[in-house]
Amino acid sequence: MSEISREILTVGDLNRAIAASLEERFDTVWVSGEISNFKAYDSGHWYFSLKDEEGQIKCVMFRGRNGQVDFMPQSGDLVEVSANLGMYVPRGDIQLTIQTLRRAGMGGLYEAFLKLKAKLAKEGLFDADRKQDIPSHPRSIGIITSPQAAALKDVLSTLARRAPHIPIVIYPTLVQGPDAPAGMIAALKAAEKENLVDVILLVRGGGSIEDLWAFNDEQLAYAMAQSPIPIVSGVGHETDVTIADFVADLRAPTPTGAAELAAPRKDQMLQELEAIKQAMLQRVRQRVEREAQTLDQLALRLSHALPNPERMREQINSWQQRLNQAWAVRVETWKRNQGHFQSQLEMLNPQRTLERGYAVVLNVSEGLQAVRDPNQLSTGPEYEIRLAKGKANVKLSDVQLLKTEQ
């Protein structure tokens, strides 16, 4: 090929070609080294170099990424970074665009994390079909965290704002350190035994991988997987990922996010209730209108079915009058019979006989039996004499029997 026909590149084209080649050739890489010439610009971006005894490379970490780093790097720090290899075209500098930055020495923990994650995934602890649904309207919410954690305040304020009507049960425990996994497992068991809550929030604020390592505990993962109560995890910041996040029935990016996912908004619930109310009213109105229309149709059919509606109305009125008359006659007859029966009862009333001057003699010793035969009278027993206006007890001093006139 002649020199004239060979393509001549500009410096910018060449640099862009090199950048594209590097980006295509290298996927995300992990690099360890010592920070050198660290500078944090007002824009929020970080610029520095990574070096070791064999070389150095320039690095940039933009504000959207470095905001997730839990410490301020300084020159001389030993760090590990995950980055994309590329070229800064204007200067032709090969550089690393950093996605994650952590202190050196965390690699062993990360390897342990990946190993446990793979094991539990193989056992099915992360499977979607075993995860429980989070209740849309929980009757009560449990929170497992440290009482001193700042995350607890954020969660409580969020729940108070969104759903102040839902009771909260706090299960206090350590969330950092070697004793934290056992404490969180005990809190889970306590919540299951008490059965007071419909959903559990497992929350903690952000921190380093060491700070959050308690949430990578294998036994805690098994306890969460076996919990009959749905669990929402809200551990660390959005970029922090733990084993507990994979096992939980729902993962929230932050503790506040966990509270928002577990509790319905009060105003939203009121809107839903209003919508249900309007829908019910609409259904009732539609039903009433349909029934009214049906009633009109039946009335029309009835009017057509009657041979002479006016005559039928007159006949009904006549029947009503006859019924009223018959009822009046019957009532009058009942009144007359009642008067007759009452007069007869009055005639048979013993009191009326006494009022005509008669008296009743009763033998007290024989249980107030009436004396009907003069031969039953004697001077010994006591007798009770009942008159129209009272009664008296007497003893007879002499009894003379008189012959009855024939």
What does this structure look like?
- With 406 residues, this protein is an alpha/beta fold.
- Among the domains are: 11-105, Beta Barrel (OB fold (Dihydrolipoamide Acetyltransferase, E2P)); 110-127 and 138-264, 3-Layer(aba) Sandwich (Rossmann fold), CATH 3.40.50; 353-395, no CATH class.
- It has 11 helices and 14 strands.
- A 5-stranded mixed β-barrel has the order 1-2-3-5-4. It has a 5-stranded parallel sheet with strand order 7-6-8-9-10.
- The radius of gyration is 52 Å and the shape is elongated.
CATH architecture tag of the domain at 110-127 and 138-264: 3-Layer(aba) Sandwich
Largest sheet: 5 strands, mixed, barrel
Principal-axes geometry comes out as: elongated
Based on DSSP secondary structure assignment, what is the total number of beta strands?
14
CATH class of the domain at 110-127 and 138-264: Alpha Beta
